[in-house]
Amino acid sequence: MTTLTSFNPATGEPVGEVPVTPAAEIPALVARAREAQRAWGALPAQARADIIRPAGQAILDRKDELAHLLTTEQGKPLADGLSEVTHCGEKLLTEVDEIAEAVAPRDLPGEGLVTTLRYDPLGVVAAITPWNFPMLMPQWMALPALVAGNAVVLKPSEQTPLIAQAWADILNELIPPGVLQTVHGADDQGKALVASEVNLIAFTGSKATGQKIMAAAAGGLKRLILELGSKDPLIVLEGADLDAAAEFAARNSFRNCGQVCVSTERIYVQDTIADAFTARLIEAAKAYPAGDPLAEGTVLGPMVMRAQKDHVARQVADAVARGAKLVHGGADMPGNFMPATVLTGVTQDMDIMRTETFGPVAAVTTIRNADEAVELANDSEYGLGAVVFAPEPLAREVASRIDAGMIGVNRGIHGAKGSPWAGSKHSGIGYHMGPDGHRQFCQVRTITRNA
Ligand code: ADP
C-alpha cells in the first residue's frame, strides 16, 4: 500500500504518514457513504447534533496534543495552532445546535393552505479542504453537512492529512460507520472524488483548482460551494487612527505567514499620510521575526512548503525589479522560512498586486483620494474581504462601494454571530456559516397541504 508522508515545514522531518486511498476505490467508498446516509439522514437534525456535540469537548480535552500535531504538520506558531484547535472545540459545542435550528422544517401559513418548508439532506457531500487552517477547514466543510443529514467524504490537503484525520477520528468515535470517511492523496484522489456519485462538492482552495472542479462537476450538475482565492485590499485614508491601521496591516499580512484567504494583500494609503503609516507599519513588522513555531513567543513560523515560499519570493523579486522598494525583510532565509516583508512604491500592474500572494508580505501603494482607493481596490478579479481605516462617516461610505463579500470598517472583517463567510467575483460561489450558509448543504423542499 502506498503511503503519504506528512513533513514538518520547519525542519523537513517526517511527522507521520497515512495510507493513500487508491483512486479506483473512491466510487465504492462513496457508495458506502450513500448506504450509511440513509439511516443518518432519517434522524431528526437535533438528534444528529446531540450525537456529534461531545466531539467539541473531546477536541478541547486533547487540545495541547492536537495543537502540537497541527503546528508540526502545518508550521503556524503553537499559540495559533492552539487557538485554532480551541476554536474548533468551543465552536462545535454550540454550532451543532445552530445548524440543527437552521435546517429544522418550518410551516408557512397561507390563504387556506399551509406549506412546510423543509431543508433535507442532499445525500453525499465531498469536502475538499486546504492546508492553511487544517483542522478548521474540515470542520467548516463537514460539520454543517453532517448535522444536515448528509454523509461526508473528506479529502484533506495532502500537506496536512494527519490533523484532518485526527479531527475525523474524533467524530467517528460518535457517529455511525460510513457517515464520515476520509480520502487521502493529492490531485488524482480529488479528481476521482469529484467524478464520483457525490451530490455536492464543498471546496476551499485555489481558483485554478476550483475552476477544474466546476468543469468536472458540470456533467452531473453537481452542486458546488467554492471558496477560492482573494487579493484583499486595505484602504487607509487621512484622519484614520494610524497606529490601529498599521497594527492591523501587520497582523493581517503576517498572521499564519499570510496564508489566510482574508489576508491583507494590497494596501492603498493616502499620499498625505503614507510616510507616517509606513513608518508605523515597519515598526509593527519588527514584532514578527520568523522562528521555530514550537518555541514560546514565536509569532511567525515557516511557510507550509517550499513551492509556496518560492512563489512569494518570486513576486517580491519581480516587484523590486519593477521599481518597488523593499523597506523591511525580504532577505532569504533557510528552508521554508520567509521573513515578514514590507514593500512600498508598488503599482497596480505588478504581479504582487494581481495574483494571490499567500505570503508574509505587506505591499503598499499610495493613492490621492478615496475615489482612487475604491477604484484600485475594486480592480481585482477577487472580492472576499476588504478593510477600510478612515474617519467616519467617510469610512462607511467607502466600505459600501467596495465589491467584496466581507468588509471591515476600522477593524477586521470578522462579523457578528450569524454572519456568513461570503465572497464576490472569483473569490467563490456560494458561502459558508450562518443559517443561510448551513442550508446550502440541504435540498430545499416545500410540501403544501390544505389548511
Ligand atoms: P492550495 O490550497 O494549495 O492552493 P489547491 O487548490 O491546489 O491547493 O488544492 C486544494 C485541494 O484540492 C487539495 O486537497 C488538493 O489535493 C485538491 N485538488 C487538487 N487538484 C484537484 C482536482 N483537479 N480536482 C479535485 N481536487 C483537487
Explain what this protein looks like in three dimensions.
By secondary structure, this protein is α/β, with parallel strands linked by helices. It is 40% helix and 21% strand. It is built from 15 helices and 20 strands. The protein has helices spanning 26-42, 45-52, 54-61, 63-74, 78-103, 136-147, 161-172, 187-195, 207-218, 242-254, 274-285, 306-321, 370-378, 394-400, 434-439, and strands at 3-7, 14-19, 106-109, 113-121, 124-128, 151-155, 180-182, 200-204, 223-227, 233-236, 266-270, 325-328, 341-344, 361-367, 382-383, 385-389, 406-409, 424-425, 428-429, 442-450. The strands form 5 sheets. The protein has a 7-stranded mixed β-sheet with strand order 12-13-14-11-10-16-17, sandwiched between helices. Strands 7-6-5-8-9-19 form a 6-stranded mixed β-sheet, sandwiched between helices. α5 runs parallel beside α6 and α10 packs across α11. The chain is globular and about 65 Å long. The mean pLDDT is 97. The protein binds adenosine-5'-diphosphate.
